[in-house]
Design goal:
Elements: H1 4-17, H2 30-39, H3 45-58, H4 62-67, H5 70-76, H6 83-100, H7 109-112, H8 120-131, H9 140-148, H10 158-168, H11 174-187
Helix pairs in contact: 1-11, 2-8, 5-6, 9-11
């Protein structure tokens, strides 16, 4: 397991590469953010951002998502992977928010995770981005980078990786750490052909591909 001192040094090196790392999903309010996060499952942010302008223009309220038919919403999402499941979850999420939360998206972790299609990762991203609550959401990039750098084991579940990262890093950097690990994994330490030859922390890597 990487020490806190080593983890801090690694964080600083990644921060130099991506000082302005941030959420790349486009949104202007909590509803748009939650829908975008739900759509981003196994889909790139770029693909999500291509359809959300039209989607956000058509569905401005939680009520409109609750009233739309499954067939119509599927058609709106047809260019995304898993669009049928995503359409169903978004509709059910909207109905539950209307019926159980008076139309307001909850900002409590446990309540968020009761919404259809909203798991721990989605809830963490929403709380960190919308409410600025310290959270570390573990997606495929965070998971890959964490195991390569020795922050976690390949056998660890996303929740276990999250807990290990929370122990390694101070709470005040959790949100920023999440974004920087995503950028590092998305653009530098890729799943295939990572840029190991130019990596400033290659000596810390458990699986260098030189």
């Amino acid at each position: 397991m990487t020490s806190k001192q080593t983890a801090a040094r690694i964080y600083q090196e990644i921060a130099k590469l991506y000082p302005d790392a941030r959420c790349e999903l486009h949104y202007t309010n909590p509803l748009e953010l939650l829908v975008a996060i739900m759509l981003s499952a196994q889909t790139t942010d770029v693909s999500v951002n291509k359809i959300t302008p039209t989607l956000n223009q058509k569905y401005k309220t939680i009520n409109e998502y609750a009233l739309v038919t499954q067939e119509e919403l599927e058609n709106d999402l047809r260019h995304l992977g898993l669009y049928k499941n995503k359409a169903e979850n978004i509709r059910k999420m909207a109905i539950k928010v209307l019926n159980e939360f008076a139309g307001e998206i909850p900002t409590n972790q446990q309540e968020l995770e009761t919404l259809p299609g909203v798991g721990r990762k989605t809830a963490n991203v929403f709380l960190a981005e919308c409410c600025h609550v310290p959270r570390i959401a573990v997606d495929t990039h965070v998971s890959r980078v964490s195991t390569r750098l020795g922050f976690a084991s390949e056998k660890d579940t996303p929740e276990k990786i999250e807990k290990k990262l929370m122990k390694l890093f101070p709470e005040d950097v959790w949100i920023d750490l999440h974004h920087k690990l995503i950028f590092f994994g998305r653009y530098f330490c890729k799943a295939k052909k990572p840029n190991c030859i130019n990596c400033p922390i290659i000596s810390d890597c458990q699986k260098p591909q030189l």
